Amino acid sequence: MNARPMIKLVVLISRFGLAALFLFTAGAKLWILKRFAGNVAELLSSAAINYERWKWPATIAVIAAEIIAAVCLIVPRTVRLGAVLAALMLIGFSAFALYYVYILHGEPLECGCFGGIIGSQLGLKTALRNLGLLVPAIIVFFGAQGKAASVSEARP
């Protein structure tokens, strides 16, 4: 039995699953935009960052980055870039969650990662969930490489 079709299927599921996740989370954040911006402001304030100045730019940057990563994962030519963006965001969100709880000793805070649809507080669970989502990002990054190579080899 040839494993290649199974690998392609796993890559596709990982690719479109991550894209759907990022589109869902961006949409959920847009749904509760003011509340999410308030959460961002609280996080910025706890990190001694001028939250009044940076609340909206940070809020928009997070949502835009999620949408950009999702679009990159959907468009065949940018799949690997989408996987890298997804991985960087997941690592960054995990690092900040751990920094907030263990370094800053922040109060439990609903991060608004999934809007108001799924409750998720910053902390170890959030970090582990995000780091677990690195697995599909890695699968997409390395799985898409073979596809890109076969497409480029076919061209004259």
Briefly summarize what is shown:
This protein is 78% helix and 3% strand. It is an all-alpha fold and 156 residues long.
The class by helix and strand makeup works out as mainly alpha
Q: What fraction, in percent, of the residue positions are helical?
A: over 70%
What's the structural domain tally? 1
User: What is the arithmetic mean of pLDDT?
Assistant: 86
Major beta sheet summary: none
Please report which band the strand proportion falls in: under 5%, 5-15%, 15-25%, 25-35%, 35-45% or over 45%: under 5%
Distance between the termini: 31 Å
The helix-strand sequence is HHHHEHH
- The poorly predicted ranges are 147-156
Radius of gyration, taken over Cα atoms and rounded to an integer in Å: 17 Å
**Strand tally:** 1
Describe this structure in words.
With 156 residues, the chain is an all-alpha fold. Helix content is 78%, strand content 3%. The protein is built from six helices and one strand, in the order H-H-H-H-E-H-H. The longest helix has 28 residues, at 4-31.
How is this fold's topology laid out?
Elements: H1 4-31, H2 33-46, H3 51-74, H4 79-103, E1 113-116, H5 124-132, H6 134-154
Helix pairs in contact: 1-3, 1-6, 2-3, 3-4, 4-5, 4-6
